[in-house]
């Protein structure tokens, strides 16, 4: 791949440490015991550093659902047929998926992009950025070529730039693609070196027999390809929608946008983005802890604590959308609560 960072359309800015310190002082001055609002205080402080604003303006939020099909689904690793990917894309457009309901509650816009579904015709209303019709079966050959991964990552970077230019300051990368928990678990194993059995969950709710099959498929694929780094893993066992989410994280950091990770698939994309650009980590938030076992391991690797534990494993950015109101609450509390000075009292030591 060379040393040229082809994904970097602009430099990732440093966090505004002066604004972070001002936010920290603001939080300490509020009429409450020090630290009593827990992670809400950290959200506000980090948002101030990311946006460079005294009171971060996060009214514009976007959920970006990246869609793609996986050749490895042919190995019987999912409880659902691949036709579901296309059907769910139409469901997103009708506003009837879980992520639509949760995003509407959070006043967030839902954007659907097709990077690699098997559909011949992309539904009207979906952003058509298809790189190819599904990945190859990584049991037999690499899922993608280098060129295809580059195209998919660049789609995500450019879409993040476009949203940032429209004033979006909080973004949640999500996904839809039958077979993508198999891909994500394989990527997690390649990144962490952990045992496949400890990383691989039931995804869409597969049987015990199919879970064993899924784990064996991942072991065989990793033994075949032996990826040496995150980019090689993405090429060999990744997905087009996962590569697109990698680009979203990279582009969000370049545009000073906070990125709220969802579950396993969204988080493995974030972990790859951090491998490519360590500065991306400063722009990440963990929304929830998925029921998928690899998710906890990846969050520990990223040293990020989830805001919610609800045993969800849906994807779509549903968990990230559910967490959005916590960000609004963090900003509102810091902005509207009285300070000790307002009451004529000294700040606590």
What do these coordinates show?
By secondary structure, the protein is of the alpha/beta class. The chain has 13 helices and eight strands. α1 runs antiparallel to α2 (39-51) and α4 packs parallel to α13. The chain is globular and about 70 Å long.
Give Rg in angstroms. Answer: 20 Å
Largest beta sheet, briefly?
6 strands, parallel
Shape: globular
Helix/strand order? HHEHHEEHEHHHHHEHEEHEH
Number of helices: 13
Low-confidence stretches: none
Helix percent band: 40-55%
Instruction: State the end-to-end distance.
Output: 53 Å
Oligomer: single chain
Q: What would you call the structural class? A: alpha/beta
Please state how the strands of the largest beta sheet are arranged side by side.
Answer: 3-2-1-4-5-6
Fraction of residues in β-strands: 5-15%
Kindly report the average pLDDT value: 96
> Total number of β-strand segments?
8
